[in-house]
């Protein structure tokens, strides 16, 4: 008789010719897909092979701790730097008679607290919950993104990518990033069944049915954002989508076709926008020619900030380039320049190390997790957070043209910090969903009790 497992050897398949005949050309892959029970597991706990169960649990436990610590430190440091960056403008506004000039800082603290709470809540859900609910998450995020084209939509610096809800502005595309990652992971994992741990075979990409849904999800999500002229966010969508398709096993020839289409699309988007064309022109002029005597650009002020900071920085709160009239958007897209001026090279290195900790912890979860959906989801989150952080740093240091993406966890903006913390919550949920990981945290003694026990033993 044929066994009912997810894998079969050759002898077992020959013993069941009638089943193979009924399934046609799908063969063993079709058997695995048919035998995947729908609606399970309810708890989301993913069972591990006995031989490496303890190792995987240790990896998940250590990755959760590293990810949580690095994320919290980046968020708190971001609040401090936002306060420093907005102080000059707040002082001038107060001198002119304005009140509540630090309202933006208070809101950022509130948003960070909301994001931490939401992340903690999401981490309690099993990862299977997100796979089952991907359509609802993605559809809701798409509807939210469509609001930017309604009377509630607001255009900022030529980008119509915000929604005004009373005194609060929201950027729906930040939440659409996470929803798109979950949707891509869910549609890719459904190709061969949720129980399969292996990634999609290269030859299976020859069937158009296996990739039409993921490509459609990307085009619809990125297309709505692109209609609002926010090309920086579109590039972030392209980054994590390409990475997730590679993780899923997409053949290299498809990447060549997609890369060529992406280059042509980017060139067209630059050509039809005078502001984008000017940014790219300034970038290449600064590379190949001496600086002109005209007005300095944002990139110029950012480089001056790094130069003023030196090794140890000028001191927290003492930066000059952040003052109004100098570096624009110091508290948002160019917050890394403020770090460079006030905390110096050492402060920038600390930020880079913290993002490396975030990336390493996410990659470790992605590599060692036994669930294919979790692998793809956490891999997409790693590509989003770390790829966007790298892009922001390259822009601020004039190694890329200015295209406006925030630094995750640190830049001012409620939508950005909440969505990034939500992504961390989903990644921690994936790690907790491995069998025995959550229980291992409960079994460990409380830190205070451990310290008291150690002290009492030394007496």
TrEMBL record:
EC number, UniProt record: 2.4.99.28
Question: What does it catalyze?
Answer: [GlcNAc-(1->4)-Mur2Ac(oyl-L-Ala-gamma-D-Glu-L-Lys-D-Ala-D-Ala)](n)-di-trans,octa-cis-undecaprenyl diphosphate + beta-D-GlcNAc-(1->4)-Mur2Ac(oyl-L-Ala-gamma-D-Glu-L-Lys-D-Ala-D-Ala)-di-trans,octa-cis-undecaprenyl diphosphate = [GlcNAc-(1->4)-Mur2Ac(oyl-L-Ala-gamma-D-Glu-L-Lys-D-Ala-D-Ala)](n+1)-di-trans,octa-cis-undecaprenyl diphosphate + di-trans,octa-cis-undecaprenyl diphosphate + H(+)
The record's subcellular location field reads:
Membrane
Provide the membrane topology annotation.
Answer: Multi-pass membrane protein
Q: Name one GO cellular component term.
A: plasma membrane
Keywords in UniProt for this one? Cell cycle, Cell division, Cell shape, Glycosyltransferase, Membrane, Peptidoglycan synthesis, Transferase, Transmembrane, Transmembrane helix
List the GO molecular function terms.
lipid-linked peptidoglycan transporter activity; peptidoglycan glycosyltransferase activity
Give positions of region: Disordered: 1-48
What InterPro entries does UniProt report for this protein, alphabetically? FtsW/RodA
This protein is called what? Probable peptidoglycan glycosyltransferase FtsW
């Amino acid at each position: 008789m044929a066994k009912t497992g997810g894998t079969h050897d050759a002898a077992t398949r020959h013993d069941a010719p009638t089943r193979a005949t009924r399934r046609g050309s799908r063969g063993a892959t079709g058997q695995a897909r048919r035998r995947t029970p729908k609606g399970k597991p309810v708890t989301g706990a993913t069972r591990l092979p006995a031989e490496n169960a303890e190792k995987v649990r240790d990896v998940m436990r250590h990755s959760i701790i590293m990810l949580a610590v690095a994320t919290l430190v980046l968020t708190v440091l971001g609040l401090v730097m936002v306060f420093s960056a907005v102080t000059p403008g707040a002082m001038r506004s107060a001198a002119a008679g304005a009140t509540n000039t630090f309202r933006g800082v208070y809101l950022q603290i509130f948003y960070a607290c909301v994001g931490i709470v939401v992340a903690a809540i999401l981490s309690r859900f099993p990862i299977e919950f997100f796979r089952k609910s991907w359509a609802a998450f993605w559809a809701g995020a798409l509807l939210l993104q469509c609001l930017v084209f309604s009377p509630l939509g607001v255009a900022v610096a030529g980008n119509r990518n915000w929604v005004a809800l009373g005194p609060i502005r929201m950027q729906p595309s930040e939440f659409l990033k996470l929803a798109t990652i979950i949707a891509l992971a869910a549609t890719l994992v459904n190709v061969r069944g949720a129980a399969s741990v292996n990634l999609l075979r290269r030859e299976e990409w020859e069937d158009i049915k296996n990739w039409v849904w993921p490509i459609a999800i990307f085009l619809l999500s990125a297309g709505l954002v692109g209609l609002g002229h926010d090309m920086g966010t579109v590039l972030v969508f392209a980054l994590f989508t390409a990475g997730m398709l590679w993780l899923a096993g997409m053949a290299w020839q498809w990447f060549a076709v997609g890369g060529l289409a992406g280059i042509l699309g980017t060139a067209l988007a630059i050509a039809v926008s005078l502001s984008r064309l000017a940014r790219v022109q300034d970038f290449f002029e600064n590379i190949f020619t001496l600086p002109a005597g005209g007005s300095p650009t944002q990139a110029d002020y950012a480089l001056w900030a790094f130069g003023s900071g030196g090794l140890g920085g000028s001191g927290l709160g003492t930066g000059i380039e952040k003052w109004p009239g100098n570096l624009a958007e110091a508290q948002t897209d160019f917050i890394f320049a403020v770090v460079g001026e006030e905390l110096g090279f050492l402060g920038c290195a600390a930020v880079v190390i913290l993002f490396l900790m975030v990336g390493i912890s996410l990659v470790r979860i992605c590599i060692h997790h036994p669930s294919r959906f979790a692998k793809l989801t956490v891999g997409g989150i790693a590509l989003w957070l770390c790829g966007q952080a790298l892009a922001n740093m390259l822009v601020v240091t004039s190694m890329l043209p200015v295209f406006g993406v925030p630094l995750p966890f640190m830049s001012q903006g409620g939508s950005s910090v909440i969505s990034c913390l939500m992504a961390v919550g989903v990644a921690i949920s994936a790690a907790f969903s491995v069998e025995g990981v959550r229980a291992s945290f409960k079994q460990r003694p409380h830190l205070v009790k451990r310290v008291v026990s150690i002290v009492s033993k030394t007496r």
